[in-house]
Amino acid sequence: MASEAAALLIEEFDSRGPIARPTLHDAIVARVRDMIIEGELVPGTRLHEGNLGKMLGVSRTPLREALKFLVSEGLLELSPGRGAVVRQFSAKDVHDSLIVLGNLEGLAGRLACEHATDAEIREVRQLHDRMMDMYEKRDRLPYFKLNQNIHSAILRLSKNDALVSVHSVLQARLKRIRYIGNEGPEKWAGAVADHEEMINALEARDAERLSKILTVHMEKTWERVRNAI
Amino acid sequence: MASEAAALLIEEFDSRGPIARPTLHDAIVARVRDMIIEGELVPGTRLHEGNLGKMLGVSRTPLREALKFLVSEGLLELSPGRGAVVRQFSAKDVHDSLIVLGNLEGLAGRLACEHATDAEIREVRQLHDRMMDMYEKRDRLPYFKLNQNIHSAILRLSKNDALVSVHSVLQARLKRIRYIGNEGPEKWAGAVADHEEMINALEARDAERLSKILTVHMEKTWERVRNAI
DNA sequence: CACAAGTATGCTGCATGCAGAATTTTGTTT
DNA sequence: AAACAAAATTCTGCATGCAGCATACTTGTG
After folding, report:
1. pLDDT tens, residue by residue, A77-134
2. CB A188 within 8 A of CB A137
3. Does the C-beta of B25 come within 7 A of strand D?
4. SS3 for A31-76, per residue?
5. Does residue B97 share a domain with residue B52?
6. Which domain does B60 fall in, by range?
7. Which of residues 163-182 of B touch A (CB under 8 A)?
8. Average pLDDT of the segment spanning B170-177
9. By the CB < 8 Å criterion, does A6 face chain B?
10. What is the ipTM of this complex?
11. Same structural domain for residues B100 and B188?
């Protein structure tokens, strides 16, 4: 049987958004992924199966399975005989990923203009307006989360599952870095302006314009982030 | 210690292209992936840990870890309590994936024009010429493999690792389907014509043209494949 | 004869044990 | 005191054992 602590882990995972049948595997994956994204596990850290397992209250077997999963996602690396290490992204890695992300979001924007319903677009507009509120208040964390939500929403509105899945993998790799690198008032203002254009293009269903904005927005993100790496 | 059969599995894996230090994990992943791509494991098949493990000569533990890895790659699905199943792709899944692939290859083409050396382009030309030979002989399998190689080469020449990695995941999901659906002499001729244009655009380093060809080529691939699903 | 309930088998998911590699500590020599 | 060597410890990688769930089968009943 799964231990007490493991049951807790599953419950915590399930409470984020109840799944048909939450599994320990998924719970561990989600937890370790968060630990990486939130910076609890610093890049370069060697993951000690014994300690980490005790910490999470699971035995080494399901933990190892979860780690292999995260290796495949590109968040961890495997050194034979030495276990898993939190992957370190070079500046080039980040740049490369942002180029691809920009391209994927550009595609998503184009498809979203085509496939989204009016109601769905209105929902994105609401997210956008709430985000602008947070910007007025200079409330960084909720701004950041809403920002992510908007990008995810556009991806979802593309109605292309393959696109959503590859995007989310790349996105997860950079999540931490993007959060770190979100500095400077004038650059922030620039990002906000981009978002204003975005929502307008989406409402006008102007596929080419939205696509362009999203791609260029990502290039600017690189400018914002590059010094933080 | 890893069993005799396991050692054999590793050796076989290593012989494809010797790695610094081949691991059993990688060998199992590669083997099962191939079994799926080559159709030995039909979509929908439930993977029996006991049998499959015996078949490959490994115990359940490393096998399960490998399966989790393949789940993350999207080749398998997990039903809680019922283990791993070879993922079944719907027509929409394939179409969605091809759209994304087309976009990624388009990006790769653009980057390749920018970053590839002349020598590298000459190598692609050689692959192309060999592929044309195979077309003349109507020798399907080597043609297919060279075709894949050319596409992979363009990806590599983009010098963008993130791009290579997301592309290869998506590519692996469709590899089997693309092979199946490569039928009909007139469509084949069309694909060959596309490739002729591709190599010309690459040699001319005409980024926009190459990008366009690659994206459109993928749309045509859908036409070739759609009836086979 | 059809169908449902109970039973039996088999499989997954998790824990633990063990061998060998990696690392650290300790001891020895210069 | 520093550098190297050897022993001891720790950790990974793999195998196996066990509990609980899923499924198939059997048996009883309408």
Report:
1. 999 999 999 999 999 999 999 999 999 999 999 999 999 999 999 999 999 999 999 9
2. no
3. yes
4. HHHHHHHCCCCCCCCECCHHHHHHHHCCCHHHHHHHHHHHHHHCCE
5. no
6. 4-86
7. 163, 165-166, 169-170
8. 90
9. no
10. 0.92
11. yes
CA A33 to chain centre: 10
Q: Find the nucleotide nearest A61 (Cα to C1′).
A: C14
For the domain that residue B43 is a member of, what is the CATH number?
1.10.10.10
> Is the same domain home to B112 and B215?
yes
Q: How far is Cα B179 from Cα B182, in angstroms, rounded to an integer?
A: 6
> Residue A45 CA to C14 C1' — how many Å?
26
B153 near B123, Cβ under 8 Å? yes
Same domain, B115 and B71: no
Of A80, A92, A162, the CB nearest to B170: A162
| Claim to verify: residue A171 and residue A208 sit in the same structural domain | yes
CA→C1' distance for A22 and C5 (Å): 30
List helix spans (H) across A79-160.
91-115, 118-136, 140-157
- Same domain? A210 vs A161: yes
Cβ of B65 within 8 Å of Cβ of A64? The answer is yes
